[in-house]
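=== RUN LOG ===
request id: a7f3
mode: sequence -> structure
chains: 1
length: 215
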Amino acid sequence: MVGIRQKTWLASGIIYALFVFWYTDFGGPLSDQEIDTWMVTMEENGSTPESLGYYEEFLRNDSGRQFLMVNALDKNENPPNVQGGQPGENSDQLMARYMEHIFPEFLALASHPVYLGDAVYRAIDISGMEEFEGADEWDQGALFRYRSRRSFMQLISNPELKKKHAFKLAALEKTIAYPTEVSFYPADLRLLVGLILLSLTALLDALVLQRKTIR
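=== RESULT ===
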């Protein structure tokens, strides 16, 4: 007969397994058929030939793993009015409108922000781009985790979300975003959630054992 202690560990294991199953893309690298389908979809959504070339190369080099998007953001001090927003909204308000629409879909695909911070001064080190005006001026840095390139394409190919992209464009003076695959990532939620569940389960197990001992 399974006791309460065994049930506690079993329940914890099931919860963790469900989380890992949701948080991890087990589909492997994108197939040629999937990539061809995404290219058709992006072309129908109005992507330029340059963008299509970028996405195709990005997808054909898929490893099937998660990746982090590194972002440098420079806010627009005088953003234009955007259809669907209120006249005179600042960059933070416009970006909030954009995130309001994208965030639910973002989380549904097991993707989420990892880090967001405000710049405290101009760029300390610039090399190879000194001639570009404003190259040392950024307002924020951010990291966003994507479950896989498959999930990334599911997000950006959504025509409803693309309609809200105007809010982001208006909110920013300039931005740079590029994908990275991690080789060292101690903030991976699979590790953190596993440690939290392990700690809580061990605590519950100890409490149950203590109650049995007292009796």
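=== NOTES ===
The first strand starts at residue 67 and ends at 75.
The chain is about 50% helix and 15% strand.
=== END ===
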